[in-house]
Amino acid sequence: MSSNSLVISPRKLRSDLYSYSYQEDSKTPLVISVLSSLIERTLARNERISKSYGGFGKTRVFDCREIPDMTIQSYLERIFRYTKAGPSVYVVAYVYIDRFCQNNQGFRISLTNVHRLLITTIMIASKYVEDMNYRNSYFAKVGGLETEDLNNLELEFLFLMGFKLHVNVSVFESYCCHLEREVSIGGGYQIEKALRCAEEIKSRQIVQDPKHHHHQQYQFSRILL
C-alpha cells in the first residue's frame, strides 16, 4: 500500500507532529507525500495544456538539459533524508512555489524544471524557517546540482520574487488547509498541521517598531549567504 493511501487519524497526526525529531530514524513527514501528490497532479495538468495549446512562455530559469531520472516523491524523500528539514519548511516552500507561479505568468511547472524548483525553494524556505542550516554547497550535492548553479538559481528566484519571502501564520495555515483538501481528493489522511512550527513562524512576524528595518535586513542577509 502506498503512503498516499494511508489513513492517519488526527490523534496519530498530532502524535507524529509533537514527537518529530531530527534523528537518523525520523519518519518521512506526511507533508512530503501530500506535496508530491499535488505536484504530480500539476505536472499532469500542465502536460495536457502544453499538448493542447503549445508552450508556456519564456520563463526558463529552472530548466535543465536532461530530465532527472527520479520521481518527485523520491526526490523530496532524498532532500528530507539528508537535510532533515522540518514539515513547515515544505509548506513554506509550497507557498513560495505558488507565489512564483503567480508572479511569473510565463512559467509552468514541468518535468524539465520541477526538481530544480523544489531544491531551490526548499533551501530558501529552510533558511527562513530553521535556525540552523546547511551551506548552499551541501544543498547542491543533495539536489544533484553544481554549487554555482544553485547559487544562481537562488538569486534568480529571489529577484523574480521581489524578495517577498515573509509567510505569516494565517498564510501558513491557509496553505495547510489547501494541502488537506488535496489529501481529501487523493488519499484520506490529513497533513501535519505543524502547529509548533506555525507558532515559530508567527513569532517571526515583524512588529511595527524601530527594529523593523533591522529585522528585515537580517532576514535577507541570511538568504543571500
UniProtKB/TrEMBL annotation:
Pfam families: Cyclin (PF08613). Keywords: Cell cycle, Cell division, Cyclin. The keyword Cell division applies. InterPro entries: Cyclin-like_sf, Cyclin_P/U, Cyclin_PHO80-like. SUPFAM superfamilies: Cyclin-like. One of its GO terms (molecular function) is protein kinase binding. Belongs to the cyclin family. Cyclin U/P subfamily. This is Cyclin. It comes from Arabis alpina.
